[in-house]
Amino acid sequence: MAHGVKIVETSCRGCVNCIKSCPTEAMRVIEGKVRILSEICIACGECLRRCTHRALLLEEDEWDYILSKRPMTLVTDPSFCTQFSWPPIPELMAQALFELNFEPIFDEYEAAYDVTALAVARAIESSSDNLRPLISTYCPAVVRLIQIKFHELIPHLVQVESPLETSIDLWRARSKRRDPVTLVSSCPARIAMVRSPVGRDISSAEFAISTSKLAREVLIGSGDPSKKVSVDYPFHAPRWIAWAKTGGESMHVRSFSSRPIKTLEVDGLRNVINLFQEMELGKLRGIDYIEARVCDLGCIGGIGNAESRFLSRIKIDNMEIDFDFNEENREELESIYDAKIWSLRERIVPIEQMPLGEDLAKAMERLKQLHAVYADLPHLDCGTCGRPSCRVMAEDIVKGEGSLDDCIFRLKERIADLSKEIYDLSKRLVHTMTPEGKS
Fold this sequence. Notes:
Elements: E1 5-7, E2 27-30, E3 33-36, H1 46-50, E4 56-58, H2 63-68, E5 72-76, H3 90-99, E6 102-104, H4 109-126, E7 134-135, H5 140-149, H6 163-175, E8 181-185, H7 188-195, E9 207-210, H8 211-221, E10 236-237, H9 248-256, E11 263-267, H10 269-280, E12 289-293, H11 309-317, E13 320-321, H12 330-338, H13 360-375, H14 390-398, H15 408-426
Parallel strand pairs: 5-6, 5-8, 7-12, 8-9, 10-13, 11-12
Antiparallel strand pairs: 1-4, 2-3
Helix pairs in contact: 4-6, 4-9, 4-12, 13-14
Pfam family, one: Fe_hyd_lg_C
InterPro entries: 4Fe-4S_dom (IPR007202), 4Fe4S_Fe-S-bd (IPR017896), 4Fe4S_Fe_S_CS (IPR017900), 4Fe4S_Ferredoxin_RnfB (IPR050395), Fe_hydrogenase (IPR009016), Fe_hydrogenase_lsu_C (IPR004108)
Domain 4Fe-4S ferredoxin-type: 3-32, 33-61
């Protein structure tokens, strides 16, 4: 399973800074090199933020290959429009990208994001009390987190496709073209979804590159498009731009709801985990919808962005964004809704973990061994063994993927015991010899 993170082994120093930040304990440092357990990685990007040696990078496609395929159709995360000094207006970005022989499909974004918000609003209205709050599926890292750590919350995930995927499907339906599409994103989880999508068997995008890489190309190749394209003042932004920051999706969903709904917005990995823990305890009654993002401030805080997330938020806040829906487009939107283009093709299912084996009897025996090994460890969770915690270390030992000597404290104890034994042995004499001077 793809995880969106590329390991550069030649740059890894084995410093173990990354393993402590992983929320699912999916990282190890073995023989001085980092490893990722892809089956439990949520591609949140926290390890990339902690790595100071650039040993962890986004697992994007080769930039030279993308350039060789121009004209290339692009679908960009809304946060891409906030990466530059000019206002986040799609017309300006389209001008810059067209000059570089790229073809953005911004024209489909409005319908894709509108129908997504409409579908979510109707899902909320038709849901039963015990299934609320529903949870947004827009952030793929949140979806993976729930699949791995919060299985009880899976029924709460709204079965609505990412509007980025929907925009590609709309573009292909309208244009009758089957050209390859490149997703531009700052998120390792979204890049991973191109290779291992959730809720569908194959992604509508064929390639994926980082926002920062394309932003650099725009800055080098096209200059400031606001000096070439006339834009009306004050600047107006489409509704989908607001999805780049926390709260934008909720505002869009509320604008389509036929009744007042209560939404809760949360960002930052620790905050998201705490919220889900409270939700499992039944503390969020009365809330209809949760918009959760693992990155601070939303997608503008993604690790693969080029611009400061704080400056990006200011740009969006200074835009005039109208969430009052234009009734003139209602008929077209209803037809898109009826076509179910917004719906996930497959149900989201838990990612089951069998850490000690699938055979129940053998797993119970290993569990006893794990408790015994864990009791023998110092319980300091220092990370010097290359595992994020002593319990993970004990689990690896039971599975035959480590030994007690991997623990520096146990190793020091063993060295001390061996030293004492060697010292005691060195004092012993051969039986046939007696000390000098004795009869």
